[in-house]
Prior knowledge:
Strand content: 15-25%
Strand order of the largest sheet: 2-3-1-4
Structural class: alpha+beta
Order of helices and strands: HHEHEEHEEHEEHHEEEEHEEEEHE
Amino acid sequence: xxxxxxxxxxxxxxxxxxxxxxxxxxxxxxxxxxxxxxxxxxxxxxxxxxxxxxxxxxxxxxxxxxxxxxxxxxxxxxxxxxxxxxxxxxxxxxxxxxxxxxxxxxxxxxxxxxxxxxxxxxxxxxxxxxxxxxxxxxxxxxxxxxxxxxxxxxxxxxxxxxxxxxxxxxxxxxxxxxxxxxxxxxxxxxxxxxxxxxxxxxxxxxxxxxxxxxxxxxxxxxxxxxxxxxxxxxxxxxxxxxxxxxxxxxxxxxxxxxxxxxxxxxxxxxxxxxxxxxxxxxxxxxxxxxxxxxxxxxxxxxxxxxxxxxxxxxxxxxxxxxxxxxxxxxxxxxx
Length: 335
């Protein structure tokens, strides 16, 4: 029986088959993952190690050198590339094709812990990340406020908004850019230090001893056994001015005698301007995993709702501005 004869004898059956094929095609089109770049699965890992205050030569000798030596023992490693800049060491690990990246990531973390044993005191754990060609910019979450300083915007963006931004499907939220980390600064007067024959290290030791984290304890009061906190940690930063440094006879030298304490920011390392004013923004990058049409629509709606969720609890205004990929060197839309 030819196809034409079957169509003439069974028109209803053929019509149902055509309609079913069309419906399946529309459903597949709606649920199919679409993206500008495919998920290539490149066998590459990046390790970013910050250490404030070290110049590039020190980062190379005290940090990067130990990482390069230990990373050569990872299973499937092809080569290691590194770059040392002021305060940051960036290491790229290239693996052979077909390497199990889950195992490679686990081994990288274990060798990171071993390498840090040879590094200077205070070396924090690095960022171990995996990037792919499908990781493209999605948009910028821009902050603006008439009452808050840039340092306060940075603090709110880092601790309050970034966790919300990171929950969006298919989006990674790097740290905010445009300001320095909020920091408690102790400014010492060199003249006062010389008058008391005192070094800055002595002030640092006094701060560490006068602001110590101590666990709470229990005390028996009659038949009760309440938990009683201790005041070893300063609740208000102005209380740091009252920490004693040294006692000379009947005179006690406090921090307020040789300097001042203020709520400020660390050394400026980033600068962002929007409409001629300094601001803070969180750059959002799409992860390598692809989303279907519903996932992309959900991401759009949640991204647009972030300003409402933030402005309802904090003073200031939050503005979301999607950034087209062509503004960053890529063609086509973002959201």
